[in-house]
Amino acid sequence: MPPSNSPAAKTERLMNLVMTLLYTRRPLSRARIRETVEQYRLAPTDEAFERMFERDKEELRELGIPLATEEISAGWEDEPGYRIHARDYALPQIRFDADELAVLGLAARAWSHATLAAPAATALRKLRASGVEPDDEAFAFVEARLGTSEPAFGPLFDAVLAQAPVRFGYARPGEEAATRHVQPWGLTSQSGHWYLTGLDTDRGEPRVFRLSRISGKVTRAGKPGSYAVPADHDPVAMIRGRREGGRLDLVRLRVQSGSGNALRHRGIETAGDDGWDKVELPYSDPGDIAHELASYGASLIVEEPPAVRDAVITVLRAGADAHEEVGP
């Protein structure tokens, strides 16, 4: 069977080629590369392999990957060998401040909910290989195991990028689900939940939709690029405005040093001298913020109020019970 030409197959082929040339101790001939990289081995003819390999070489160089051409040995006459030197491929020393680490962690958290999970993991591995540790506790410890990913995230993410209208079923607490027609503007995570902001075309007003309340499939209801997102759109402010009139309380936390950068960014931080810092964070609903706090696992302690601490314990126990049911 000839190799697939899909974008995913091409990406996998390029990654296999890079890994092969990066970890070899000596230059590899074309024949050896064809034997090693599975997608090349499946090429139906020598000509098909040659065309594929030439295109891949050019693409790697356009991406800035230092593909070196070297002499293999005297016995190979004029045939060149190929390799990638680790010293040229390695990233330089990279330093990020707390806000930038929080953004990296949030981006990986978002991508872990959709079809971008594999590219996100690859990007994080490259960062860690260079000595950078993104603030990823918020998705690595508990969240993925509690089943918090929303089925609506993927199609809504694509619709936001394409500026394509959608329709979906949506149910407010205590109400029956009703079909909503929306021009998606943005997706934002707040207090452990994902929200869609956009224009509700049935009501002619901007609205906020919590993804966990979307029922059924999200389907396209118009052509891509058929509307424009307002230039002054601020999804975070829009979500907060939705809660105007509601009372905000403070949760007091102890956060392990080097962890919880996203929480520190949103709250008031007081440095400690025992490896733990104090952070005060505003919240409106114990249940909403409990999922976010629980995702930090042992890196965080809720000091008060008791309602939030109890909600976090409930979430953690639910996660532990789910693991016990699945078994090893």
From TrEMBL:
Domain WCX residue range list: 251-318
PROSITE patterns in alphabetical order: WYL
Superkingdom of origin organism: Bacteria
Residue ranges of domain WYL in the record: 152-215
Designated name of the protein: Uncharacterized protein
Higher taxonomy: Bacteria, Bacillati, Actinomycetota, Actinomycetes, Micrococcales
